[in-house]
Amino acid sequence: MAGAMELLSFLIIASFHVILMALAQDGNQFVHYDFRKADLYIDGVATIEDGRLKLTNSSKRATGHAFHKTPVNFRNTSFSFTTEFVFAIIPDESTSYGQGMAFVIAPSVDLRYGAATSYLGIFNRTNDNKTENHIFAVELDTNASSEALEESDNHVGIDINSIISVYSVDASYFDDTKGLRKSLVLASKQRIRIWIEYDGEQRLLNVTLAPLETPKPSLPLLSRSIDLSKIFKEQMFFGFSGSTGTIKSHQYILGWALSIGGKAQSLDISKVLDLPRPPPNHMPVILASAATIAFLIIAGGIAFFYHQKRFAEVFEQWEQKYSPQRFSFRTLYKATKGFKENRVLGAGGFGKVYKGDLPDGTQIAVKRVSHGAKQGMQEYVSEIATMSRLGHMNLVQLRGYCRRKGELLLVYEYMPNGSLSDYLFHGNNLSWSQRVHIITGVASALRYLHDDTEKVVLHRDIKASNILLDSNLNGKLGDFGLARVHDHGEILQPTRVVGTIGYMAPEVTTLGVTNKLTDVYAFGALILEVVCGRRPIDLERSLEQRILIEWVASCGRRGGLIDTVDSKLAGNFRTEEAKLLLKLGMLCSQKDPENRPTMKDITEYLQKNIMPNITFDITEIGIPIVPLICNEMTPSHGTTSSVASFWYDTITVLFRGR
Ligand SMILES: *[C@@H]1O[C@H](CO)[C@@H](O)[C@H](O)[C@H]1NC(C)=O
Ligand SMILES: *[C@@H]1O[C@H](CO)[C@@H](O)[C@H](O)[C@H]1NC(C)=O
Ligand SMILES: *[C@@H]1O[C@H](CO)[C@@H](O)[C@H](O)[C@H]1NC(C)=O
Ligand SMILES: *[C@@H]1O[C@H](CO)[C@@H](O)[C@H](O)[C@H]1NC(C)=O
Ligand SMILES: *[C@@H]1O[C@H](CO)[C@@H](O)[C@H](O)[C@H]1NC(C)=O
Ligand SMILES: *[C@@H]1O[C@H](CO)[C@@H](O)[C@H](O)[C@H]1NC(C)=O
């Protein structure tokens, strides 16, 4: 009896093994790191190169396919499957991505009829959208050309019998450590892992993406209800298809796990092959360094066409080096409700700023450079490069950007209270302690820019309209469009003069000199503006009061310094603090830059309540000079002045130095 039991259990175990082996041989479960060992059907330009599966190369309008030769038998199953693979897309050109690739489940391995370019080698003009195709694909599309208008050039789509996706979303992944979604560039030359899971009982398809080193995110990129039993035949082949157009990309698969019915074995990322180096047939890769970027920012005056060429390279390099979030145009389009006019927060010479709402509820401000604003492009490169490296609570945070057909969009945290300028002159009255809080906040941000970062960052356009206020009325410095970056200790050559009248130190307009002390001068003008509640230059006032510094100095000389404090405060301020700030503002406004305090000094005056020692001698004061040539920028509309204006509400001067 015991023997019979043993025999029985042996038979059960043995048959279990046979079933398992049959499953494995059916191609129902496998893991590949080296595709030389995989049993693949390959056609078109696809090859296996040193163990890597390469779908496309630099051949134009070509397709490549690779399918597991053994079909999967779905008979009497719920069609559940899970798969995980690692891919990398290396575009031939730095500015275009080329076409894309797809994970395909088809009733045949032979997809040679599939057209190149936007059909991704899966469908053609005659069979597209035919139910006889029985094809399911997850496309990793890097070109928007053929699809619906709103499609971005970086999306993941679910294709059923047609290249026109039934669902499609911009590529991104959920960062569990930060609790937010980050966009992901498919053609980033980086290895990306993707999980495709289909639960046939629930009829639920999940697709999840993440950079190779990132563990599987807890939230999928998309989770959709789909009934694959209506599409699949009993026997289906699993594989990949890729295509090129006039723009080419090299598409690699570097690891693949599949399981039918159960959960796929997770890929061991240490076993996933690296990308070949140097990339084949690839344009020269220019070494990235902060110095190159800084150099290019400084080369602001160089002719535009020359600059634009470099621009692409800088951008690419920078994208990898600093990698702030890249938003898709579609996300921003939706967030701003199609860049509706009623979402405009402010407008300036280079474009408009819109309010946006991301799907997760985050509010953003999107600065969009207007078409053909050539001047603007240079400023923006400077702005992104500068801001992406900075982190200080009193600096407006750059959340990301989007690049599209020569258009650039910058995404910032949204500042619900608009600009200091609007708040001061049109909004609610700022209390004394709020004013002091804003000044100390901006001072600490400037100290950070001047002394605490790897390179010296000169803002060069400090003014009330570039200070934005968050919901707690914290002042944050924004608009780095005119910023300049240099090494500590480096002496800058004069190039061109930028800034805003009233905040520009006299040596800037006469000598074209810019350094930390020119920022200090502007900060001084800002202190006076906030304390006195009036602009540095106000032509509507009496001659004596037109230039704020002159007026404060004359009041100071006759012992009436406190008379200059904003009358809107109705006496509700601390006298000693007001004196300190007014004197500090005057100290920053000295004609001789050497006599001005550094930002470090300024923060100490503020923290330790040290009263600056100052005479109000008019000959020592740097009276703002109105330059010879100036470009007037239209101020943002009077009607919208209560909302944020990141832009020129005074006059910005932009002209070449001598
Ligand atoms: C791409 O690969 C195919 C097939 O291996 C080959 O015939 C073709 O010459 C390659 N194209 C280029 C540009 O290397
Ligand atoms: C599949 O199911 C059908 C009926 O639902 C049954 O007749 C057949 O034996 C099953 N086949 C296998 C291999 O289980
Ligand atoms: C899409 O393809 C077209 C035609 O090949 C090309 O001009 C364009 O640059 C491509 N776009 C991207 C983002 O690669
Ligand atoms: C399109 O694909 C079908 C197979 O689905 C094939 O019969 C047909 O010849 C192809 N058409 C072209 C123009 O290649
Ligand atoms: C695909 O075909 C279905 C009918 O079979 C039709 O309703 C649908 O509009 C077609 N889609 C496209 C994009 O042509
Ligand atoms: C798919 O995602 C949903 C939502 O995150 C989750 O509830 C479900 O368990 C996932 N299903 C599979 C098969 O991973």
From TrEMBL:
Q: Where in the cell is it found?
A: Cell membrane
Q: Give the membrane topology, semicolon-separated if more than one.
A: Single-pass type I membrane protein
Q: What is its EC number?
A: 2.7.11.1
Q: Which GO terms describe its molecular function?
A: ATP binding; carbohydrate binding; protein serine/threonine kinase activity
Where it mainly occurs, coarsely classed, is membrane
Q: Where is the Protein kinase domain?
A: 339-614
The record's keywords, sorted A to Z, are: ATP-binding, Cell membrane, Kinase, Lectin, Membrane, Nucleotide-binding, Receptor, Serine/threonine-protein kinase, Signal, Transferase, Transmembrane, Transmembrane helix
Instruction: Please provide one cellular component term from the Gene Ontology annotations of this protein.
Output: plasma membrane
InterPro entries for this protein:
L-type_Lectin-RKs, Legume_lectin_dom, Prot_kinase_dom, Protein_kinase_ATP_BS, Ser/Thr_kinase_AS
| Reaction equations catalysed | L-seryl-[protein] + ATP = O-phospho-L-seryl-[protein] + ADP + H(+); L-threonyl-[protein] + ATP = O-phospho-L-threonyl-[protein] + ADP + H(+)
- Signal peptide range equals 1-24
Q: Which residues bind ATP?
A: 367
- TM ranges are 285-306
Family label: In the N-terminal section; belongs to the leguminous lectin family. In the C-terminal section; belongs to the protein kinase superfamily. Ser/Thr protein kinase family.
| Name listed for the protein in its UniProt record | non-specific serine/threonine protein kinase
